Amino acid sequence: MLTHLLFTDLAGRLRKVTLRIDGDPLLLEGLETIVDGSSLLGFLRVEESDLLVKPVSSRPIVTGYVEGKHFISGLYKDKNTRYNKDPRFVAERLVEYLKEVELEARVGVELEFYIVESVESRLTPVSQSLNVKPIGEADYPQSSLWFVKTYDSPGEDKVGKLLGRVLAELERNELYFSKVHRENGPRGQVEVSTPAGTPIETADFVQHFKYMARVVGGREGFRPVFLAKPFPDDYGSGMHVHVSLWQGASNIFEEEGKLSDEALYFIGGLLEHARSLAAFTNPTVNSYRRLVEGFEAPVYVSWGLGNRTTAIRVPTQHQGRVEYRPPDPTSNPYLSISAIIMAGLDGIRKKISPSEPTSRNLFEEAAGWGTGGRVLPRSLEEALEELEADNDYLQPVFDRELLESYIELKKREAKAFRSYPTPVDYLFYLEY
Fold this sequence. Notes:
Elements (H helix, E strand, L loop, with lengths): L1 E7 L5 E7 L12 E4 L13 E6 L5 E3 L2 E13 L2 E2 L4 H14 L3 E21 L2 E8 L23 H14 L7 E4 L6 E5 L5 H22 L2 E3 L13 E9 L2 E2 L2 E2 L2 E2 L1 H21 L5 H4 L12 E3 L6 E3 L7 E3 L8 H18 L15 H4 L10 H10 L10 H19 L4 H7 L3
Parallel strand pairs: 1-6, 17-18
Antiparallel strand pairs: 1-2, 3-4, 4-6, 5-6, 6-7, 8-9, 8-11, 8-12, 8-13, 10-11, 13-14, 13-19, 15-16, 18-19
Helix pairs in contact: 1-6, 2-3, 3-6, 4-6, 4-8, 8-9
Pfam families: Gln-synt_C
InterPro entries: Gln_synt_N_sf (IPR036651), Gln_synth/guanido_kin_cat_dom (IPR014746), Gln_synth_cat_dom (IPR008146)
Organism: Thermogladius calderae (strain DSM 22663 / VKM B-2946 / 1633)
């Protein structure tokens, strides 16, 4: 029997180790293997590189596209000691921390991404190429962005049918979505929403979904694209995070059908730490190609009631939850969800009152409004500088060593990518 152990690295990529074992792994006792921690960026040095991978979820995931069973797994320093930089361990520590203060977080996400036929790319010091082939869509120019397919039935075209095969594979494992529809991007953008779950359950779903989309796509002839900004003239993809906090059966964000003081303080914490949060919620150079004016992405540190132009939205029909809109699908869900909740908890602890909610359309009025408002970071390097200066609110859930390694890893990434000229440089600057 093939058994696949899935674990997440510091950057958020899902890794896999496959074991061949005798019989059916119904009993997980003793199911483990060693991996080289020095080959995973940001983890261990080569002279002390052994890490154990062991299942941390007893629920096996199966698919008709891959032989064997998959298990979400954790990283261990030894048989009984979790590795402090394991991203899933951060989410586990968050849940335990919430229990200590007699709270429970319920989290759901709206995951946006594109389904295309193929992606071909090439990068050398003297040669660059990119060819993305959409599925059954014209290559609409920027002037035609009004032609969108939002809320078209995703089951009635090829994009929807391919998405349906991914969702069917998840449902056979009792991993259910709550809503699915076409999004604004005409080149095959879709959105899948999850039901509310624990931070661990929701982050696990995101990782399972991305893995299954790639597995099914490899067999069915399509490619999921989770980049925050895949096309220069099209809408970016976000991963909006919805949070509510509970004490037993009571939602502490709601009081007589309106926002409670705790909810307002939670929003205050998100506003206070939004710029440093970006290092987790928008963790790639590509992330900041989405956070620009003109494509319905949140740019300003702001909040509103039912206002989708702000960074924080409180749904008017469900005022018992808070939606944080800046995150994108390239974020490590264990780290980004945990950081969002810790920022909000800091607001509750310090009773940080938010500014007044805005009812203005910040997409249309951005230029004028932005002169008096805080903006989200414009680059990954700027976000990392903010995280270096503002991270106390993440303790005790985020280990100090993890923060230092994450910042160092992402700084190296930003510097390396910044050094590469692109065809845009040659098109516009060659004659200077």
